[in-house]
Amino acid sequence: MKIIIIGIQGSGKSTQGKLLGEKLQIPYLSTGHIFRVLSKENTPLGKQIKVLMNAGFLIPDEKTLKIVEEYLARPEYKDGYVLDGFPRTLAQAEKFHQDLDKVILLKISDKEALWRISGREEIREDETLMAIRKRIELFNKFTQPVLDYYREKNLLLEVDGEQTIEQIHKEIVEKLHI
Ligand code: AMP
């Protein structure tokens, strides 16, 4: 199965994405992780990515699409994947030509997201309050059209992300009929 998992930062995408990947025996990957690895490289691209990430800005669509497509062309993803963090803009969604089975939206309020992230034990370099607020703002602005796009295609599955980890996983499994 090819699954996308979408939600604001702090919505539990990576936790649920990994659980779902295990359940379906397919790999989980996140564009945030890919970009964090690239940002540590001492190359012009690495430096550009680092600056954008630390400010909470998005990486340009063309760059993002190229990187994601290169990753998904690897043999380990040929039988499916759970992809977290992509697409984040309508342009990314429209240019992403993969036969998706479902797009899962983990719904939580901005307040709950900020609350969860502030309570984390390890805070990453790109998790300043400013960067987090910027990401939430950009999500509301650019990712809402992505949700409408997949809703129209009947691929969107909405899940209440403010339940416990187990309850959310159960709801996803039930709604996917797996
Ligand atoms: P995340 O861990 O998903 O919040 O991603 C961290 C950062 O990586 C984001 O703030 C962006 O700078 C970058 N990023 C991740 N996914 C994308 C994407 N699909 N398009 C553009 N930038 C992205």
What are the defining features of this structure?
178 residues; alpha/beta; Rossmann fold; five-stranded parallel beta sheet; 8 helices; 53% helix; binds adenosine monophosphate
Task: Compile the SSE list and pairings.
Blueprint: E1 2-6, H1 13-24, E2 28-30, H2 31-39, H3 44-55, H4 61-72, E3 81-84, H5 90-94, E4 102-107, H6 110-118, H7 129-152, E5 156-160, H8 165-176
Parallel strand pairs: 1-3, 1-4, 2-3, 4-5
The chain binds adenosine monophosphate.
Adenosine monophosphate is lined by residues 9, 30-32, 35, 52-53, 56-59, 64, 85-88, 92, 135.
Account of the 3D structure:
This protein has 178 residues and is an alpha/beta fold. It has one domain (2-176): P-loop containing nucleotide triphosphate hydrolases (Rossmann fold), CATH 3.40.50. 53% of the residues lie in helices and 13% in strands. It is built from eight helices and five strands. It has a five-stranded parallel β-sheet. Helix 1 (13-24) packs across helix 8 (165-176) and helix 2 (31-39) packs across helix 3 (44-55). The longest helix is centred in the C-terminal third of the chain and has 24 residues, at 129-152. It binds adenosine monophosphate. Residues 9, 30-32, 35, 52-53, 56-59, 64, 85-88, 92, 135 line the site of adenosine monophosphate (AMP).
| Relevant CATH superfamily | P-loop containing nucleotide triphosphate hydrolases
Spans where pLDDT lies below 50 across 5 or more residues: none
Write out the strand line-up for the largest beta sheet, numbering strands in chain order. 2-3-1-4-5
Any guess at the CATH architecture? 3-Layer(aba) Sandwich
Class per helix and strand makeup: alpha/beta
- End-to-end separation in angstroms reads 10 Å
Major sheet size, sense and barrel closure: 5 strands, parallel
* Count of all domains: 1
- CATH level-3 fold name: Rossmann fold
Percent of residues in β-strands:
5-15%
Bound ions, cofactors and other small molecules, one mention each? adenosine monophosphate
The H/E string reads EHEHHHEHEHHEH
The pLDDT mean sits at: 95
The DSSP helix count reads 8
Helix residue percentage: 40-55%
